[in-house]
Design a protein that fits this description.
Blueprint (H helix, E strand, L loop, with lengths): L7 E6 L1 H18 L6 E6 L3 H9 L6 E9 L10 E5 L9 E9 L3 H11 L5 E9 L12 E5 L5 E2 L15 E4 L1 H5 L4
Parallel strand pairs: 2-3, 2-5, 5-6, 6-7
Antiparallel strand pairs: 1-9, 3-4, 8-9
Helix pairs in contact: 1-2
Bound molecules: 1-O-pyrophosphono-5-O-phosphono-alpha-D-ribofuranose.
1-O-pyrophosphono-5-O-phosphono-alpha-D-ribofuranose (PRP) binds next to strand 2, strand 5 and helix 3.
Length: 185
């Protein structure tokens, strides 16, 4: 067992299951955007592993770009107050934009991003998320592509972190509560 695995209570979505679903999503996106060369906008840092796999599953031309957002709340809770740490390089006016996220929780981060990107007048703006936690939603958002609906558990891996760790796990797992409940040193 490696030193990260002892911190996990269960593997929620295996590597093989993720791979299969990412291929289905890629095929659907390739079909829906055929001839449009969408810009896939990855929200850092969590979305990067999903983007890397998803773009290889889309057998049509795409462009990619990145945005980094910071929440002012604690690391465990989204406060709804967000700011842009790193903005897109591309001009998205008149372009088809697909936001690529790892997880939608309260929806505050995404709601801010949608509002912000909408003002730049893209031809279309849609959302693709690997994980959705609908029980936690505080803002009503319509999601266009969802990999998996998951229960309200603390998940890490496949890009998702706790205190910047565990992003490199190739599956989505549930963190043992004692790991995130222990007092900081
Ligand atoms: C996560 C995730 C979303 C956001 C979702 O990012 O990637 O951007 O939280 O939460 P919300 O729906 O409650 O707003 P995080 O702030 O953990 O940053 P990271 O991707 O760099 O880990």
């Amino acid at each position: 067992m490696n030193s990260m695995q002892k911190d996990l209570s269960e593997i929620l979505i295996s590597r093989e299951t993720i791979e299969r679903r990412v291929h289905e999503l890629g095929a659907q996106i390739a079909h829906d955007y055929a001839g449009q060369t969408p810009i896939l906008v990855c929200i850092l840092k969590g979305g990067m592993m999903f983007l890397a796999d998803l773009m290889r599953a889309i057998a049509e031309p795409v462009e990619i770009d990145f945005m980094a957002i910071s929440s002012y709340g604690s690391s465990m809770e989204s406060s709804g107050v967000v700011r842009i740490l790193m903005d897109l390089e591309s001009n998205i006016e008149g372009r088809h934009v697909l936001i690529v996220e790892d997880i939608i929780d309260t929806g505050h981060t995404l709601s801010y991003i949608i509002e912000n990107l909408s003002t730049r007048r893209p031809a279309s703006l849609h959302i693709c998320t690997l994980l959705d936690k609908p029980d936690r939603r505080e803002v009503d958002i319509s999601l266009d592509y969802v990999g998996f609906n998951i229960p309200n558990k603390f998940v890490i891996g496949y890009g998702l972190d706790y205190a910047e760790k565990y992003r490199n796990l190739p599956f989505v797992a549930v963190l043992k509560p004692e790991v995130y409940l222990q007092p900081s040193p």
